[in-house]
Design brief:
The chain is built from 15 helices and 16 strands. The chain has 417 residues and is α+β, with helices and mostly antiparallel strands. It binds adenosine-5'-triphosphate and magnesium ion.
Length: 417
């Protein structure tokens, strides 16, 4: 127990963390180019926020939330998704009163009690983007292009962008009626979950992964045939923007997303290499959410991307992230006096922008040089009595073995050149 992390969690070890840093830096950089600013919200929220903001008929609320009472009896839930906390903060801090739209991004852990498997964890991480206050389809297209740009920059070119429109409360009501009539004839062929969905949110039967349900819904009427003019126009506009950017996409009426608050656009970006956990990114429009949570009536659109799934997809596509380079300099020492000098020199050089390592293990000179090699140091110097005296060192290029005698004071300049 003591030395085993809880089921469904994962340590990111130093041998892997550079990959996380690389993709996270890229996410931040791309968001900066698009003018999205970071928002950081707490690791837990009042449970009511997720009940409201995610919806009681969703898998997340029905069976996946980490909910507990704190010591004073308040019901608390670990962050189960990123959108509703961002909306809560948007309302709480009056950001809706500022110039719109509000463009936000986050990189955050997310907690869901799930059956752990590859690409499905109990603590996973999401990169998410939200734009509040803009109802134009150009906003939908912009968030999609953030995800697509990231994936393309990472070298993933074979992912599928699937889009759909789930309509609005007006046209979805009509469609739900038609869909329910259709499903009624096939109730006994649906899985138990879908029998519940049929009652509370029939649309969600469409994205059930169970084979028998998929067979049934393969014949179901399509929501895209029931959209009102406003929703249909929005969907056509979105396609126009995606075409203009040259993105390939598939209109897939099964993409309905797990969350209740979605309206109009729903989309997923799918990698076919990681099986059932192939959805790397999912998002859509949620024009009713901000008001639902207690803010003004304002539209919104965004996505969440699973970072573990993203890394898994990179791996499966044979895309390697370059390992960080070794230190610029390793300073070996002989004797205590030299160690103190070395320690101080290393500190000064680091302050001036060089990556410098020294030995802390009382290694022999030979072992220090072996260690320098292992660290992949670009240069090495040895400092002993003689060097302290002459203030000169032999700067060794570790790749070529070439040695140049220089003043200790010239090390920084020599390496930077
Ligand atoms: P799924 O259908 O795979 O359960 P979801 O609809 O629950 O996904 P969202 O709530 O939209 O997913 O989350 C956005 C993204 O976060 C997903 O597309 C996926 O990449 C990732 N994700 C969701 N749940 C997990 C999890 N348990 N472990 C790892 N990544 C996850
Ligand atoms: Mg899920």
């Amino acid at each position: 127990m003591l030395t085993k992390a809880p089921r469904g969690t994962k340590d990111v070890l130093p041998s892997e963390s550079y990959k996380w840093q690389y993709v996270e830096n890229l996410m931040r950089e791309i968001c900066e180019f698009y003018g999205y600013k970071e928002i950081r919200t707490p690791g837990f929220e009042h449970t009511e926020l997720f009940l409201r903001g995610v919806g009681e008929s969703t898998d997340i609320v029905r069976k996946e939330m980490y909910t507990f009472n704190d010591r004073s009896g308040r019901s608390i839930t670990l962050k189960a998704e990123g959108t509703s906390p961002a909306v809560r903060a948007f309302i709480e801090h009056g950001l809706y009163a500022e110039t719109q739209p509000t463009k936000l991004y986050y990189i955050t852990p997310v907690y869901r009690y799930e059956k752990p498997q590859a690409g499905r964890l109990r603590e996973h991480h999401q990169f998410g983007v939200e734009i509040f206050g803009a109802k134009s389809a150009s906003a939908d297209a912009e968030v999609i292009s953030i995800a697509m740009t990231l994936l393309k920059k990472l070298g993933l070119n074979n992912l599928e962008l699937r889009i759909n429109s789930v309509g609005c409360p007006v046209c979805r009501k009509n469609y739900n009626k038609v869909l329910k009539e259709f499903l009624k004839e096939h109730l006994d062929e649906l899985c138990d979950d879908c029998k519940v969905r049929y009652e509370v949110n029939p649309l969600r039967v469409l994205d059930c992964k169970v084979e028998s349900c998929r067979r049934v819904t393969g014949e179901a009427p399509l929501i895209t045939d029931y959209l009102c003019d406003d929703c249909r126009n929005h969907f056509e506009e979105l396609k126009k923007y995606l075409d203009a950017m040259g993105y390939n996409y598939i209109v897939d009426p099964r993409i309905v997303r797990g969350l209740d608050y979605y309206t109009k656009t729903a989309f997923e970006i799918i990698s076919k290499d990681i099986g059932a956990q192939g959805t790397v990114c999912g998002g859509g429009r949620y024009d009713g959410l901000i008001e639902e949570i207690g803010g003004p009536s304002m539209p919104g659109v965004g996505f969440g991307m699973g970072i573990e799934r993203l890394l898994l997809t990179l791996e499966q596509n044979g895309i390697e992230i370059t390992k960080p380079e070794g230190p610029d300099l390793f300073i070996a020492y002989i004797g205590d006096e030299a160690k103190l000098f070395t320690f101080t020199l290393a500190n000064k050089l680091r302050f001036n922008g060089l990556k410098v390592e020294i030995d802390h293990m009382e290694r022999s000179l030979k072992a220090q040089m072996k260690y320098a090699n292992k660290l992949n140091a670009k240069f090495a110097v040895v400092i002993g009595e003689e060097e302290l005296e002459s203030k000169k060192v032999k700067l060794k290029n570790m790749a070529t073995g070439e040695e140049t005698e220089i003043l200790i004071d010239e090390i920084e300049k020599a390496i930077k050149n």
